[in-house]
Specification:
Blueprint (H helix, E strand, L loop, with lengths): L1 E5 L6 E5 L2 E5 L7 E2 L7 E2 L16 E4 L9 H6 L6 E3 L1 H10 L5 E3 L9 E3 L2 E6 L11 E5 L4 E6 L7 H7 L3 E7 L3 E3 L7 E4 L1 H11 L4 E3 L7 E2 L1 H5 L1 E3 L3 H8 L3 E2 L7 E3 L1
Parallel strand pairs: 3-6, 6-7, 7-8, 12-13, 13-16, 16-19
Antiparallel strand pairs: 1-2, 1-20, 2-3, 4-5, 5-17, 9-10, 10-11, 11-12, 14-15, 14-18
Length: 257
């Protein structure tokens, strides 16, 4: 049974699969700040699930080093005995701020063995960029060669990554549908929008798709003032593109056998 539950209406989730449970990118209290408040501070438009109501988990997964995914105030409030599983730059940040906690690095997919945690395998999708912004994807798989793919900032798999996904049944894709673009000096295309969703559908052929990292968050600072955004109507998108998109705008769990 594969079960997912939103923890906020942005990019925080609870995933239960194969007898294991994970919290992904928890940002559940306060605002998130990138660098300085004058540069970018944002809040949730809808209050997240309270920390006291978060289901149990065996590990916390952090996909990106940025504060809306790697939210240090939230992580400090969670049980310090829960292992942290993180992609490259998030791993470095977490090791710095939590030197006493167990932090495990999720290896990049390119010709490297996965991180094995219980019965599941974790592999990071690295976009190939050396300089920021670097937005990772993540693939979680089991021995039956089933996979869950998470690309909160969109992603385009390269030839090597596609080769390694051959033979996998993608049960679920969580990806962004929004367009969020900044001037090139501040990061350029942060979320690439519907065209990238089409590419991911063609590359991964997922059985189900969920929107993630698409909350229209209020904010202040230079970044929100300069951002060009477009948030599509997901119900209309699902009809127009004819694929199995589940629109989840509440905190109730969804399960599939």
């Amino acid at each position: 049974m594969l079960t997912v539950r939103r923890l906020n209406l942005d990019s925080s989730w609870h995933l239960s699969w194969g007898g294991q449970q994970f919290v992904i990118d928890p940002w559940l209290i306060g605002s998130e700040v990138d660098g300085f408040r004058w540069l970018n501070e944002q809040w949730h438009a809808t209050p997240p699930l309270p920390l006291s109501e978060i289901p149990p988990c065996d590990a916390i997964v952090v996909t990106q080093s940025y504060s809306d995914h790697c939210h240090l105030p939230t992580l400090r409030e969670m049980d310090p005995g829960i292992p942290l599983l993180a992609t490259g730059k998030a791993f470095v940040r977490l090791r710095k701020h939590f030197p006493e906690r167990e932090v495990l690095r999720i290896p990049d997919m390119h010709n490297r063995p996965p991180l094995v945690f219980g019965d599941l395998h974790f592999r990071a999708l690295h976009p190939g960029r050396r300089r920021d912004p670097v937005y990772y994807g993540l693939v979680i798989s089991n021995v039956q060669r089933e996979a869950v793919a998470l690309t909160p900032h969109g992603f385009q798999l390269d030839v090597n990554q596609l080769d390694q996904m051959v033979g996998y049944r993608c049960r679920l894709l969580l990806t962004s549908f929004a367009e969020y673009e900044l001037p090139a000096l501040l990061g350029g295309k942060v979320n690439p929008g519907l065209e990238n969703v089409r590419q991911l559908l063609a590359q991964l052929q997922p059985e189900r798709v969920l929107s993630t990292h698409d909350e229209q968050k209020p904010g202040r600072g230079l970044v929100p003032r300069l951002a060009r955004t477009r948030y599509p109507d997901l119900s209309q998108v699902a009809e127009a593109m004819d694929f199995p998109l589940d629109v989840v705008e509440d905190y109730e769990p969804r399960s599939w056998p």
